[in-house]
Design goal:
Order of helices and strands of chain A: EHEHEEHH
Radius of gyration of chain B: 16 Å
Oligomer: heterodimer
Shape of chain A: elongated
Strand order of the largest sheet of chain B: 1-4-3-2
Number of helices of chain B: 4
Structural class of chain A: alpha+beta
Shape of chain B: globular
Mean pLDDT of chain B: 81
Largest sheet of chain B: 4 strands, mixed
Distance between the termini of chain B: 57 Å
Radius of gyration of chain A: 21 Å
Strand content of chain B: 15-25%
Chain lengths: 117, 103
């Protein structure tokens, strides 16, 4: 598990998406964490100090895992860059087709035939 | 695994889940370019909510949800700014309207 700074993490995430276009998946997990052990947290609670929470982000392509931790100050900048990366790579999803259900069915059928042969 | 069909229900229940237990709730996303599928999962290790899609429009909705989760997790579960901005513009506007009366 590699813990990186937010910017190198974003670069690695981009290359992960690029590598997984032909096969494989990319998992990204978000979890809130203070990155302190329970003992330390209890100590901070009794001392009356507010525990600083961070958002832990993990990404894996099944083989390699990278992670980063984002605090309240950097989270907006990180989330903007993260959204850009996602938009740029999630191009395989279907566009909405309200009309021409027949055409969609035909298109899917012919695509499957082409992929089969 | 519970697959939720309605996006709004998925968002409401996952935020509820997070607010109830911010320490153990996590949000996962799996994307397969070769299949063109996106699966979202929110769990607190007791209950699990999932949402799968292959629609580009859901990717945009997911980005908004990402923003909500980022804010909740980094700022704290009491941060209702993200949810207010994303879901209930009326509550935010109520305070703003009061200010506009200065003339």
């Amino acid at each position: 598990m590699v813990l990186l700074q937010p910017d190198p993490f974003l670069n690695e995430l981009t290359s992960m998406y690029e590598r997984s276009t032909e096969q494989g998946s990319v998992w990204v997990t978000l979890k809130r964490s203070s990155l302190k052990s329970k003992v330390q947290r209890n100590k901070l609670k009794t001392a009356g100090d507010p525990i600083e929470y961070r958002c832990l982000i993990r990404a894996t392509d099944g083989k390699k895992t990278i992670s980063t931790s984002v605090g309240a100050k950097d989270h907006q900048r990180f989330q903007a860059s993260y959204a850009t990366i996602l938009k740029a790579h999630m191009t395989a999803l279907k566009k909405r087709e309200r009309k021409d259900k027949k055409k969609a069915a035909e298109g899917a059928g012919s695509k499957k035939a082409r992929q089969g042969s | 695994m519970v697959y939720i069909t309605s996006w709004d229900e998925f968002v409401d229940r996952s935020v509820q889940l997070f607010r109830a237990d911010p320490e153990s709730t996590r949000y996962s996303m799996k994307y397969r370019h070769c299949d063109g599928k996106l699966v979202l999962k929110v769990t607190d290790n007791r209950e699990c909510l999932k949402f799968k899609t292959d629609q580009a429009q859901d990717a945009k909705k997911m980005e908004k949800l990402n923003n909500i989760f980022f804010t909740l997790m980094a700022r704290g579960p009491d941060a209702d700014v993200a949810e207010a901005a994303g879901k209930d513009p009326t509550e935010a506007q109520a305070t703003k309207k009061g200010r506009g009366r200065k003339q």
